[in-house]
Task: structure prediction
Amino acid sequence: MRPIYLDNNATTRTDPSVVAAMLPFFSEQFGNASSAHAVGRQVAESIREARRSVQALIGSAFDHEVVFTSGGTESDNTAILSALAVQEQRDEIVTTAVEHPAVLSLTDELGRRGNKCHLIPVDCAGRLDIDAYRRALSPRTAVASVMWANNETGTIFPVEVLAKMARSVGALFHTDAVQAVGRIPIDVKTTEIDMLSLSGHKLHGPKGIGALYVRKDTKFRRLIFGGPQERRRRSGTENVPGIIGLGKASELVAVELGRERMKIAALRNRLEQGVLELGNCVVLGDQENRLPNTSNIAFEHLEGEAITHHLNRAGVAVSLGSACGSGSMEPSHVLRAMNVPSILLRGAIRFSLSRETTSEEIDRVLVMLRKIIAKLRGASPEVPERARSISRFNESIQ
Result:
């Protein structure tokens, strides 16, 4: 049997039709889009078509609001550094304690350089402390950067409201929407969001390509200097095959978003129901307001590393948390920020589905998990006092 892949928040499989759309741009339509001749102009037109596809997916008003980048990390860095550069007399950043390292690593560095960075806490379900966010905003705030959806728990933040609040103090608002784009409907033109990051490999496109939405008339300072590409907002010869792939992936996901979202959510719920029947486990995150494909389940008294090891040997790919932190033995910064009890902290497994996930695969995983959990529990006796603390945490999530 083929492996079962349930780690789609780390990356998705590139859709075969996306690969087919990309291939001609390696050997047949290989021109430089900046060239004046017909070969180059043909490529430039294909880039424009891809840009319009991304525009349609996120609901931006103008195609030139889409700036192609190398991915989510570059987009996040560009947005925050640009906001600091163009906002005179403003040197503070407001973000959250559960952001992706693409944001938190940058804000850590900026803090060492003298910028003040406010990390807004979350509650035990991963929901943002809105009052703390409001208090952190001030005339010194250059940018508020809040992810649209968390990569580990799937919890969705009210970015439309948060953008309005940032605007009320004259700050720019950026959202890392890498996990949200292609999974939930987005229409940026109806919001006050100034900048938005997305990445191709999270929506069945290729790796190494992403985009930064920059609202028209938003002051902007580019990160990469050089030639006139991307209307002088991101220099460097375009990654044409990647751009074409992102455009095609955007087209595909836009067509089926509504139907696929419901199907994926149903499979996610089926998985959770089956796992919860095993007992002594908790679904983490805001279960009423999260991505349809994401389930983070913590098992009491067990090590997530052992669970993922056994699943991997059985041909099932899952994650301990975000892929960028999976090489570390340290507990997830997201779960720590949620004050997840210590005996759950190391037993959390993230399952992330895609439109390619099938009901048969979910059933196979549940069969495997029953055997794996039973085996591991035989070597990990329950501690009554700890069990009571988990029960209290579970009640606080509801």
